[in-house]
Amino acid sequence: xxxxxxxxGDHGPAAGGPWPEGSxxxxxxxxxxxxxxxxxxxGTRTGQLAFFRATLEEGPAAVQELAGRVQRVSCPAGLRQxxxxxxxxxxxxxxxxxxxxxxxxxxxxxxxxxxxxALGRMRTPAAVAALRALSQSRATPGFREAVDRALxxxxxxxxxxxxxxxxxxxxxxxxxxxxGAHQLGRLLTPDSLEPLKGAVAHADPLVFRHALRLVGQLGxxxxxxxxxxxxxxxxxxxxxxxxxxxxxxxxxxLPRPELLERIHQALASRWGTExxxxxxxxxxxxADRAQAAAxxxxxxxxxxxxxxLLDTLLAAMEEKAAPLARHLDQANEAxxxxxxxxxxxxxxxxQGLAAMAQQGLIETEALLPALAESLRLNTGRAGVASALxxxxxxxxxxxxxxxxxxxDGTIRAAALEILGDRKDPELRPALxxxxxxxxxxxxxxxxxxxxxxxxxxxxARAFLAEADPEEVKVGxxxxxxxxxxxxxxxxxxxxxxxxxEAVQVAxxxxxxxIASPRAVDPLLxxxxxxxxxxxxxxxxxxxxxxxxxxxALALSVKAEELKAPLLxxxxxxxxxRAHDGPDRPLSLGGSAALLKAVQGGWSDxxxxxxxxxxxxxxxALHADDPGVWAGLSALVQATLGEKRPPGSxxxxxxxxxxxxxxxxxxxxxx
Length: 670
Prior knowledge:
The longest helix is centred in the middle third of the chain and has 37 residues. This protein folds into four domains: 192 residues, Leucine-rich Repeat Variant, CATH 1.25.10; 167 residues, no CATH class; 58 residues, no CATH class; 156 residues. The N and C termini lie far apart (82 Å). The chain is built from 37 helices and no strands. By secondary structure, it is mainly α.
């Protein structure tokens, strides 16, 4: 038995002092270990080390004494912590009931984590069962994660079964099922495929969806083979579902005799050559013979449509009309749920197979025909198209045509994004074709992806060299979209020499989007009185979009020379854009130019649209000169104070200007 060697300090009486009153009497009744615990200070390093030595020497016999102490409400947190830490390093089975009881009510997450790790290290069936119980009872964030980690480390196989059981709760307990699926994702092994196969066939949609995703994460050739078979079977089910829904619409409108005739015709077309004897029994008109024949056809491989036809026939042979009506109603209600399940199954299986093919778990050549068939027959949606786009070789022109000619814009968009994200130069022809898409957004996305390929400047110049002005404008949009500064000289030359005004305007818009300082002087040189008003405005807007302070000041001077109110407004916007941050405020020298430009735009014959535009722009200005705010605020207040006939100015414009005026007044007073 361990005997403490007291040295004063933390565990004995004060140096030279007496033991506490009554301690001698207690020592006659207590063991040395109990005396040690009575005097232990768990907050000191010396006490902690002594606790470990003493408990280890005492052995499993210490468990009973510590259990009585740590389970008291008055037990110090330090002693609970030391006990749980000792359990972690020395996971004796005797600790199990003590730790389990402590963890049921432990509120401190660090202590709880220490305790569940201790249970995990015991690695006994009882400890694993305790962890499973804690996983259910301590479901709050942090605590459940700690239990799941311990369970995963203690017994991965048992942990898989535990979380798989949680998944199977499905829509009845969606939070638990979702968490179970999340944990299963960390526990997957090749042996997980078989139970997941059963879950994929589960009727609950939540179970089915999670299980199918998990199969896609398995990363084994066997899982890939299962998914390919599932994809093909689901594609066939989708075709049968399509036929079933069309048939269901027709059957609901028919009287019973005609319905029976239609059912017999459908069954004959499907089974006439294979089972004429069974068809004869089904057409006998006797319910018991038809039931026996139908039972003989019901095999595990019976298709969706065949099952529906048999069920409808048997319901129609009932004496009363209610069974048939109920059957058709139920089939009608089940159709949308089944369609969603099929769509999800096809898309998810396709995505999982594409990832597996890229990992080398399945041959791409074995997968492409199934994906193409699903897309060609319109059973697959965006997920199937994305999977095909991930795998399609650039040389497989028929498959690329299938993707790019897809009638559904949503599916084309999904395929285009994947093709573009591949950044494969060999896919340039496909992207060039996609940029002609009838949907403008898709055409723009194709141009974006083209710019991610090598040599975007060469692509832009190829567009600009086209004789068709529409193709030239595509090249200009492309240059602007990717801000190709190397093309600035080409665009300046085009803006200066192009005879087609629409192309000139597009070139100026591209220069503004690229925002190269090199364009400032050439654009200012082009802005003169000989230009048409539309070209003057396009040049001014290009200079504005450059965001260059010198160009903005020069534009305000040009606007004064040309005496055009609209150019004054653009000059104001240019000055604000060049000084729209505290790191580049408008200088004192620029204030006069700004006020003159504001006055020039404020005095148009139809001023209110321009005034509102100027006021909006001024709100973003940063200026060093306090006087500029006072001048602007005075101008707005004077305008608001003008006498005008009622209704001559829209109330919305007046309210908007009042709001801007208050902001400018606040800046003037700051």
